[in-house]
Design brief:
The complex is a heterodimer of chains A (284) and B (352).
Chain A lengths: L1 H24 L3 E12 L2 E2 L13 E2 L5 E18 L4 E4 L4 H4 L1 E4 L7 E8 L1 E10 L14 H8 L6 E2 L4 E2 L2 E7 L4 E7 L4 E3 L2 E4 L5 E6 L5 E2 L5 E7 L21 E2 L5 H9 L10 E7 L2
Parallel strand pairs in A: 1-17, 12-18
Antiparallel strand pairs in A: 1-2, 1-7, 3-4, 4-5, 4-6, 4-8, 4-11, 8-15, 8-16, 9-10, 11-12, 13-14, 17-19
Chain B lengths: L1 H24 L4 H4 L32 H11 L12 H4 L51 H5 L8 H8 L3 H11 L6 H13 L7 H6 L8 H13 L14 E2 L15 H4 L8 E2 L21 H10 L9 H4 L9 H12 L11
Antiparallel strand pairs in B: 1-2
Helix pairs in contact in B: 3-7, 3-8, 10-14
The chains are: A alpha+beta (284), B mainly alpha (352).
Chain lengths: 284, 352
């Protein structure tokens, strides 16, 4: 009897060793870093004031030159889709842990690390440009960290009168005489989803397929998401000329806002990528 | 809240169950065992004046109570709401001006100038839209806006909670109003709304004439009432003297890029530079007039309508059909103003 016990123990030992080594080589979870590369077409944007000689200048489809002095947007509601179709939500109901302000003037905000992502192969990412309606209430008690991050004096992503967050904030200059342009977007919607009573929904759901599948495990993949701000004026939905005609150069209200929202974040129906695309997936 | 009540009930049941044992074993006094009954906090029933529309449905979810209103009134006058403790709600919403002020545009912390003219606060319980553009549909959602707005109080709700938590009187009032001392954002918003729901104005001369309480219009007021019915009442309708619609009446335009009128919220071109039709109750006390105080007097408003307003594609049909104006003789203007002043509620503004 004692012998049998010993044999059993002996036979378990290698199994234990194997499973141990397996655990060492493939962790159950790891990080994914989302790197946001803000561009005009393929050129990474350099910000600059009106007289800047270094700022990246873009020319719109309608021949209008423009450049930015400020570029910010909110990313939240991130979901990763595994190769088998399983959806892994990333703190989608917690703005403190699952939302960020991408700010071109702060390099550290261009990398957003998603921690503790379950190991496996992923084929797609979904995220929101802006904040979904049920969380978009400037609730400092619930999400003090994101509230502070978004409301900081050098960030200004609170849209006080709309009691929500600004989703994008673009400041800059257009035409050869560098007239000011200022595009702010955010939701003014009231009521529950499916039964909105008034207002404009500026939140946009972005869906992007990975050109190569990131594999989380031993690797902590880095995914580069391009945000091509050429689309602001020359989008898939609208071709905009600033100044007169179909758009004022300053959008701080819901009036005319959707033109820009649809270009940046897609129109919510046949365009679910807007200005975004995946330009690189690094698995090491 | 419900959980707390259930807990209380269980506790009370327990207390009642063990009561005889205690009475048997030690002749302890009743007061030691039975929890003191929660202090009375009766509901304040809102009297709906004759002919007024029904209550905003939010009122049912936040019925004013004795201490809720008392707390709300105190908070309404609380300067700690602003970053440097200088501005309260009442700084702009002054009772003597029907809870508005005399400034062209609201003036907040550090004398910063706001986008618009301070709207009066009256008969809020019956309104479906708040503010000039109707961005707020429930009064409970409004108090946060001035607290955080740069030009108003420039603070934050946690900052406010921190500051008022140091005042012993508030702990007592929150307990009386809501059952325990905890000071939360929700309770702040709800108590202020409760207070505002009780600000009902329906005791003007006009009301007393209508109710046959022995007063009658003067000749000028009576003529003015006819002018009003003919030339004003299509927008300033109902006993609130507003149909609560949003209209572009061709007033001079606020040049700020923040302004789009109702379209600021809806994004609909037809709403561009449309504003909520203001109630004419107590309008005698709320000069200057217009969304950013374009007109110093009622006479100036009527002169403007008479002379012709700015044309716009979405100009109100009533004006479009009349050559972009409301023609009024000098006599009609005088009489209309006499009538409008019968809508002044002296008790409401604390002048009686």
């Amino acid at each position: 009897m004692k012998n049998i016990k010993n044999y059993l123990l002996l036979s378990i030992l290698p199994l234990a060793l194997i499973s141990c080594s397996k655990n060492d080589s493939t962790p159950v979870a790891n990080n994914i870093t989302l790197h946001f590369n803000n561009t005009f077409k393929t050129t990474t944007i350099v910000l600059g004031d009106a007289a800047s000689s270094t700022a990246t200048v873009n020319t719109s489809a309608n021949g209008q030159v423009h450049h930015f002095s400020e570029l910010k947007y909110v990313i939240s509601n991130i979901r990763l889709i595994k190769a088998d179709g399983n959806e892994i939500p990333y703190n989608i109901n917690d703005l403190d842990k699952g939302a960020t302000v991408v700010n071109q003037s702060k390099p550290q905000t261009l990398d957003y690390v998603l921690s503790n992502i379950p190991a496996g192969e992923y084929k797609q990412i979904k995220f929101g440009l802006g904040v979904k309606q049920e969380l978009n209430t400037l609730d400092q008690t619930k999400f003090p960290k994101f509230y502070a991050e978004a409301g900081a004096n050098d960030t200004e992503m609170h849209w006080e009168w709309g009691t929500g967050y600004r989703f994008t904030k673009l400041e800059g200059f257009y035409d050869t005489d560098n007239k000011e342009m200022s595009i702010h977007t955010g939701s003014t919607i009231e009521g529950e989803e499916g039964a909105y009573t008034q207002g404009v929904d500026a939140y946009r759901e972005i869906i992007l397929d990975f050109p190569a599948h990131p594999i989380v495990g031993r690797n902590a993949p880095k995914i580069t998401i391009n945000a091509d701000f050429d689309k602001l004026l020359s989008g898939k939905t609208n071709t905009i000329t600033l100044g007169s005609g179909n758009a004022t150069p300053s959008v701080h209200t819901a009036a005319n806002m959707v033109l820009f929202v649809d270009n940046l974040g897609g129109n919510g129906s046949n365009d679910t990528s807007g200005m975004f695309s995946i330009s690189n997936v690094e698995n090491n | 809240m419900a959980a707390l009540l259930i807990y209380r009930l269980i506790e009370m049941k327990k207390a009642i169950a063990i009561l005889p044992i205690f009475l048997l074993l030690i002749s302890c006094s009743k007061e030691d065992i039975i929890e003191p009954a929660p202090e009375e906090n009766p509901e304040i029933s809102l009297t709906i004046p004759t002919g007024f529309p029904s209550l905003n449905s939010s009122v049912n979810g936040n019925k004013p109570t004795k201490f809720g209103v008392e707390l709300g009134e105190k908070l309404f006058h609380e300067k700690m709401f602003s970053a440097n403790n200088t501005v309260s709600c009442a700084s702009c919403h002054q009772q003597s001006n029907a809870f508005s002020d005399k400034n062209i545009q609201a003036i907040g912390i550090h004398d910063r100038v706001g986008l618009r003219n301070t709207p009066p606060i009256q008969n809020m319980a019956f309104m479906n839209f708040y503010n000039w553009d109707g961005n707020i549909l429930q009064l409970e959602k409004q108090p946060l806006v001035p607290i955080i707005t740069h030009e108003e109080m420039n603070s934050s709700i946690l900052e406010v909670i921190d500051k008022i938590s140091t005042v012993h009187e508030y702990k007592d009032l929150f307990k009386k109003a809501f059952g325990d001392e905890s000071i939360t954002s929700e309770r702040i918003y709800r108590s202020i709304a409760q207070y505002e729901y009780t600000l009902i104005s329906a005791n003007s001369k006009y009301d007393r004439v209508k109710r046959n309480e022995g007063e009658i219009f003067t000749e000028s007021e009576a003529r003015g009432y006819q002018v009003f019915k003919q030339k004003c009442a299509s927008c300033h309708s109902t006993e609130l003297f507003t149909d609560q619609s949003f209209r572009n009446v061709g007033f001079p335009i606020n040049p700020s890029i923040e302004e789009a009128g109702r379209a600021r919220i809806t994004g609909i071109p037809a709403d561009y530079m449309s504003f909520r039709v203001p109630s004419l109750r107590n309008v005698e006390y709320t000069a200057p007039y217009g969304s950013f105080g374009q007109f110093p007097t009622l006479k100036a408003v009527l002169d403007y309508f008479d002379n012709g307003v700015l044309y716009a594609d979405n100009l109100d049909p009533f004006l479009k059909e009349n050559g972009n104006r409301i023609p009024l003789t000098e006599q009609e203007k005088q009489d209309a103003i006499s009538f409008i002043k019968t809508l002044s509620d002296h008790t409401f503004v604390g002048k009686e």
